[in-house]
Write a structure and sequence with these properties.
- This protein is α/β, with parallel strands linked by helices.
- The protein is built from eight helices and eleven strands.
- It has a five-stranded parallel β-sheet, with helices on both faces. A four-stranded antiparallel β-sheet has the order 6-7-8-9, with helices on one face. It has a two-stranded antiparallel ribbon with strand order 10-11.
- Helix 2 runs parallel beside helix 3 and helix 6 crosses helix 8.
Length: 228
Amino acid sequence: MQKILVVEDEVKVANAVKKGLEENGFDVDVAYDGRIGKGLAISNNYDLVILDLNLPHHNGYEICEVIRHKNNRVPVIMLTALGGVEDKMQAFELGADDYLVKPFDFRELLARIRVFLKRAGSEATHGTQYKISIADLEIDREKKDVTRGGKKIALTAKEYQLLEFLAMHKGKVISKLTIAEKVWDIDFDTGTNVIEVYMNFLRKKIDKDFEQKLLHTKTGMGYYLSEE
């Protein structure tokens, strides 16, 4: 049975999510404040975490950061009333995998959860036992480490996911829509410039200090990773 942590201070919301998830076969722990949520996240291993942002004692950003220091793989879904672009950007920068704004339909939350758990299971079975090399860039998919020219490059969880996805499709032009669906998942708001922002983040870390550029843009079509 897959285990999910829900950190939510609105008792009615937390209990409704817990009930719905348990009815769908999940084992669920609930924390009604940030201190308890942080402690559970540190002391237990979960298959997925659902986080509110506005929490007593420790907010969702802080807990997400703690989770990422402990485990760079567990999917984290932010479930919050804060729907601003800046709120989303900060959540993704700290390592959140998805962002769902209240009020929400439980069926949509369940669909997102299943997408992440299916992906995590597939990667554990098939996809993490090797390295991807492009020129002097090396991606260790098991350790989630990235180096270029032998120098380790520190990436956030979302930056890593974007780079890994492009590397897995080396040389292929990937549209913004495809990136939104595969890296940011269901119903990502493609009207924002989040993808462009993250591509700029990656370029600064991957290409800026190197003569050979690996990240490329095909105007009007998308992005690709290539040695050209």
